[in-house]
Fold this sequence. Notes:
Blueprint: H1 4-14, E1 28-29, E2 32-37, E3 48-52, E4 62-69, E5 74-81, H2 93-96, H3 102-106, E6 117-127, E7 130-134, E8 141-142, H4 144-162, H5 183-190, H6 196-200, E9 201-203, E10 205-206, E11 209-210, E12 213-217, E13 220-228, E14 234-239, H7 245-263, E15 267-273, H8 278-284, E16 290-294
Parallel strand pairs: 14-15, 15-16
Antiparallel strand pairs: 1-2, 2-3, 3-4, 4-5, 5-6, 6-7, 7-8, 9-13, 10-11, 12-13, 13-14
Amino acid sequence: xxxxxxxxxxxxxxxxxxxxxxxxxxxxxxxxxxxxxxxxxxxxxxxxxxxxxxxxxxxxxxxxxxxxxxxxxxxxxxxxxxxxxxxxxxxxxxxxxxxxxxxxxxxxxxxxxxxxxxxxxxxxxxxxxxxxxxxxxxxxxxxxxxxxxxxxxxxxxxxxxxxxxxxxxxxxxxxxxxxxxxxxxxxxxxxxxxxxxxxxxxxxxxxxxxxxxxxxxxxxxxxxxxxxxxxxxxxxxxxxxxxxxxxxxxxxxxxxxxxxxxxxxxxxxxxxxxxxxxxxxxxxxxxxxxxxxxxxxxxxxxxxxx
Length: 306
């Protein structure tokens, strides 16, 4: 496989022109479909190069993508998210909970793709046909080797994510081995009717499609959005995943506020945690419409006997 840096340099140079042609670019890269766009009919404000799994499209899916913010002289290698149509799978919660969105990174109004997540940022300098990339924070020059390594890292991660098998439904709620914390959410969804949550709340399903899990809003994604069986009030459910109680409570309150403003009516909150600590206890003294559910992981080894 040839160096991608040469292709990237061609892309940056062409983005300065009114040339929208993409036929000369590779159609595949690292066993993924590669798509390039400089705009349709008129030059785009943010040209891009996307790397897509077979079951997805640029308009429907998630994928690594270079986004070139020309006016800001910045190239972002991003955990990309389609702006057009959602896909049933998404970037793992470890990304969404720990990585800045592009909007937050620039901290200003940007033309497109603000909900995607920043993997790496490069400051771009063009001198004739020569392109130089530097680290925006340190000013250190980014070499071709660095660019190749960054792309390889995110593509390898993406291919692992899209090839993950579906979580298996376990026999009893409260027991089971979660190989990673993020599997807890899938486990709860798949076992919904067997949980105490399922006795009180309904998942949101429209035209046969589950909408509750990773419910997208313009301020982020709610882990699970459900509705109270009796009152039909909305219920925001957040999992305490590798973060502080303060972070979890703040996140829950923010999503409850968004839901109340955009959905109307009363809103309940639920925190799902591995343990109940004093910080949660104090928070719940004033958050009267929030309850906590605890999950238990039970790992056992049984001696084999014939």
